[in-house]
Design brief:
This protein is α/β, with parallel strands linked by helices. It has a single domain, classed as Alpha-Beta Barrel (TIM Barrel). Helix content is 40%, strand content 12%. It has helices spanning 56-79, 91-95, 97-105, 126-144, 162-168, 202-208, 213-230, 250-264, 274-284, and strands spanning 25-33, 85-88, 109-112, 150-151, 173-174, 184-185, 192-193, 236-242, 269-271. The strands form two sheets. Strands 1, 2, 3, 8 and 9 form a five-stranded parallel beta sheet that branches. It has a four-stranded mixed beta sheet with strand order 4-5-7-6, sandwiched between helices. Strand 6 and strand 7 form a beta hairpin. The radius of gyration is 18 Å and the shape is globular. The chain starts with 24 loop residues before the first strand and ends in a 6-residue tail after the last helix. InterPro entries: Glyco_hydro/deAcase_b/a-brl, NODB_dom. Residues 56-272 form the NodB homology domain. This is Polysaccharide deacetylase. It comes from Streptoalloteichus tenebrarius (strain ATCC 17920 / DSM 40477 / JCM 4838 / CBS 697.72 / NBRC 16177 / NCIMB 11028 / NRRL B-12390 / A12253. 1 / ISP 5477) (Streptomyces tenebrarius).
């Protein structure tokens, strides 16, 4: 079947995007703050034990994120004056309320990211998914005091109904379709796609490709430099996708600091959140623009 969610739109044919204060690149940190079920397999560092329940090796590795890694991440973001766009499993609100307290104090943007990272809604009926999404959104709103505006599915999963169901709940954008350097409108009234980093992502780089910390720094610089060059006539978005159980391991952590140092001190950068990118695009770009 053909994709009905969005239309083809070559970037060279679009009206220019103008970010606030003449910035050329809108930069946000997508911090994945997640909860994993102890008896379900998920992202793993060693495949030999993934079918065990419990799986202390892989579960413990993931559990490093909320216990230790996220606090290193917070320290670094604070040092660089960055607010996180948090891809938040709603179960984090119940299991790790201290993280919610820290993020609320820093005015983080809370992006709904499913109930936990062990549950995908891919096989749900419309009514099952509507109830599931409602629970996720309302749980996050109750815990943070702010209704999420955006969505990213666990492992970037959706059904064909997800964007429309999210629009019913008042959300305005998704991060799941990593096919562009600019936001664009979906064929669902009121819904946008905002860029997210599927390759500029610590899991993809460190686990998928076994790259080193210095490799990571160079890749972030290269990504930024190309987007900055491309943005001479129309703004671009750069998303840096991070998982505290990966990037904030002690031996990697300093390389995140080096990478952020390069971006945040460059002129012409809007240090922002995915919420603000979506809001600015919706407010300043004509609806007929893809």
């Amino acid at each position: 079947m053909d994709n009905q969610l969005y239309d083809y739109s070559p970037i060279v044919d679009r009206e220019p995007i103008h970010w606030p204060n003449g910035a050329r690149v809108a930069f946000y940190v997508g911090a994945n703050i997640e909860h994993y079920q102890v008896d379900r397999p998920s992202t793993s560092i060693f495949g030999g034990t993934v079918d065990l329940a419990p799986d202390p090796l892989n579960y413990g590795w993931r559990d490093y994120g909320p216990r230790v890694g996220v606090w290193r991440l917070i320290e670094t973001l604070d040092r660089h004056g960055l607010r996180a766009s948090v891809l938040l499993n709603s179960e984090v609100c119940r299991h790790y309320p201290r993280i919610i307290e820290a993020g609320t104090a820093r005015d983080w943007a809370w992006v709904a990211h499913g109930r936990d990272n062990s549950t995908f809604q891919a096989d749900m009926t419309v009514e099952e998914e509507r109830a599931y999404l409602t629970d996720v959104v309302e749980t996050i709103e109750k815990a943070t005091g702010r209704r999420p505006r955006g969505w990213m599915g666990p492992a970037l999963t959706e059904t064909f109904n997800t964007p429309a169901l999210l629009a019913e709940l008042g959300l305005t954008y998704v991060l799941d379709w990593c096919n562009d350097d600019q936001p664009y409108r979906l064929n669902v009234p009121g819904m946008l796609s905002v860029p997210y980093g599927i390759e500029l992502n610590d899991i993809s780089l460190f686990l998928g490709k076994s790259l080193s910390g210095p490799d990571f720094v160079q890749i972030v610089k290269d990504q930024f430099d190309q987007l900055y060059a491309d943005s001479a006539t129309s703004g671009r978005v750069m998303a840096l996708a991070l998982h505290p159980f990966v990037i904030n391991q002690p031996f990697r952590h300093k390389y995140l600091d080096q990478a952020l140092e390069y971006v945040v001190n460059h002129p012409g950068v809007w240090l922002t959140t995915s919420d603000e990118i979506a809001e600015h695009y919706a407010r300043t770009t004509a609806p007929t623009t893809a």
